[in-house]
Amino acid sequence: MKKFLLVMVAVMCVGTLSAQKWSIGGRVGSGIQAVGQYEVTGKSYVEARFGASWNNPLFTRIANNHVSQHRVMADFTALYNWHVLELDWTPGTGLWYFDAGCGVNVGGREHYAYVGAAGMARLGIKFYDVPLTLSFDWTPCFGPNIFYAGGGNVTAFNELGLANLGISCMFNF
Questions:
Q1: Are the beta carbons of 116 and 130 closer than 8 angstroms?
Q2: Cα–Cα dist 90/167, whole Å
Q3: Higher confidence at residue 112 or residue 117?
Q4: Which of 6, 58, 84, 155 lies in the 20 to 30 Å Cα band around 116?
Q5: Cα 113–Cα 118–Cα 122 angle in degrees, nearest 5
Q6: How distant, in Å, are the alpha carbons of 4, 10, 40, 99, 113 from that of 138?
Q7: Is residue 161 a part of any domain in this protein?
Q8: Which sign does the torsion angle of CA 158, 162, 167, 169 carry?
């Protein structure tokens, strides 16, 4: 009886997972990121990105002057997105769409960190014949950069986070 219950629970879990709308892929732009999406409702989805970014300056302290240098660092973004508009520009090929969302962006390296709010605007196409989605997005990030070494802190606004453009390719389950 226990084995039967375990098998039934496993079948239900697999059925539930396969019935969900998942997408995985990558994004290239202000960095290289792995992307995962989960459709919450037919009109909204959650997106998580993790990877390397070179869009934020790394502050170093040289004789009380702050010099901005660009370095690769870890970057994580979590967004809640809504399907705003669907367009039938190419009948038979795919469904064009416009999405918008908001969330949080964090990252850093060694003695440097940044955290802030993130927005998202995306134009893409979801193909009918293959489970593939291509998109172009703008994900501006607002918040402070913090350098915390040498007994002091230096903060500045993350102005380069406003120029966060990218191209994504997603495989849809």
A1: no
A2: 20
A3: 117
A4: 84
A5: 135
A6: 50, 40, 22, 11, 22
A7: yes
A8: positive
Range(s) of the domain holding residue 157: 22-172
C-alpha dihedral sign at 77, 83, 85, 89: positive
Contact between residue 114 and residue 90 where contact means Cβ atoms under 8 Å apart? no
Q: What is the pLDDT of residues 48-87, one digit of tens each?
A: 999 998 766 565 544 345 555 667 889 999 999 999 999 9
Residue with tokens 């997603």: 170
CATH number at residue 160: 2.40.160
Cα 127 to Cα 171: distance, rounded to the nearest angstrom: 10
Considering its fold, how many domains does the chain have in total?
1
Number of H helices, E strands in the chain: 1, 13
On the question of pLDDT at 151 being above 70, the answer is: no
Rg of the chain on CA atoms, in Å: 20
Q: Which amino acid is at 16?
A: T
Write the CA distances from 166 to 22, 60, 137, integer angstroms: 20, 28, 5
CB 147 within 8 Å of CB 118: no
**Residues forming beta bridges with residue 154, ordered by sequence position:** 147
137 within some domain = yes
Contact 115, 76 (CB under 8 A): no
- Look up residue 13 and give its two tokens: 């879990």
Residue showing tokens 């009380």: 64
Residue 158 lies in a domain: yes
